[in-house]
Amino acid sequence: MGRGEDREGVAAAGGFFWSYTDEPHATRRRLILSKYPQIKQLFGPDHSAFFKISGVVLLQLGTGALLHDAGWLKIFLVAYFFGSFLNQNLFLAIHELSHNLAFSTPVYNRWLGIFANLPVGVPMSVTFQKYHLEHHRFQGVDGIDMDVPSLTEVRLVKNMIAKTIWVFLQLFFYAFRPLFLKPKPPGIWEFINFSVQIALDVSMVYFFGWKALAYLILSSFLGGGMHPMAAHFISEHYVFNPDQETYSYYGPLNYLAWHVGYHNEHHDFPRIPGNKLYKVKEIAPEFYDSLASYRSWSQIIYMYIMDRTVGPFSRMKRKSSKAE
């Protein structure tokens, strides 16, 4: 299907793919639950989340402390080959917590998210939840879903070199896009998140020096750029097949990524924690086996950069029903 053609309610115009049907997940959720109501038994928190998050936070902060007087090359190598995996793990733990999947009481999830945020180096857990829940409710809706790249990105990122730079910096685009396009006034929880994070950063510098903090921030930057773990940003919703707007990844890195690779399953059932999403596919395979999916996140980055027909514009968008 070429851009500009119509097929099953999808058209390509202005660079993006435009859908004139509802997002697919609510419909598939209803169909699956009507056939397999036992899936509701998977709903609820992952009671091991607190212990897993605590272990990673302490391990990453401890690693930063141990590297306080290391050379910059060693800090870079440890950050890329070790710390980046830990910080992406924590970023995706924050994603889990944004859906209240560690505790039944929402405020406990928010506090755990602020704790999980500590090794990331910059405050983001509270703000992330605000925008991410809109991504689920209004997937692809123009002007609301801030997961979709901006027109500026589409206009600037048009060739292999630009896409390579974009991949290196995609974490910055992901973080700052909503702040420029759809800023939300901060509340008390953003202030708490900011205060706790700055207190941790200052403490790291005071007790262990600037290199300890630099290691944490470098781990976040490297893990969110040209890195296998960061490929989930691309694999989840970038359209390689015009008939499909959400894609799952079934490779081994799911074990480090809170199984966020099961992304069709996650959008279909956001109340199911990551460690149980594989059961959705096992119970209802006929709903997922026919969908395109991935086995390698590294391959996704290569495909994204090398394929001239793919770029920031390769996203499905739809108009808000309120505007119709």
TrEMBL record:
The chain crosses the membrane at residues 75-94, 156-176, 214-234. Residues 11-49 form the Sphingolipid delta4-desaturase N-terminal domain. GO terms for cellular component: endoplasmic reticulum membrane. Its EC number is 1.14.19.17. Its main location: endoplasmic reticulum. It is found in: Endoplasmic reticulum membrane; Membrane. It is a multi-pass membrane protein. One of its GO terms (molecular function) is sphingolipid delta-4 desaturase activity. It is an enzyme of class 1 (oxidoreductase). It catalyses: an N-acylsphinganine + 2 Fe(II)-[cytochrome b5] + O2 + 2 H(+) = an N-acylsphing-4-enine + 2 Fe(III)-[cytochrome b5] + 2 H2O. CDD domains: Delta4-sphingolipid-FADS-like. GO terms for biological process: ceramide biosynthetic process. Keywords: Endoplasmic reticulum, Lipid metabolism, Membrane, Oxidoreductase, Transmembrane, Transmembrane helix. Belongs to the fatty acid desaturase type 1 family. DEGS subfamily. Sphingolipid-delta-4-desaturase required for the biosynthesis of delta-4-unsaturated sphingolipids and derivatives. This is Sphingolipid delta(4)-desaturase DES1-like. The lineage of its organism: Eukaryota, Viridiplantae, Streptophyta, Embryophyta, Tracheophyta.
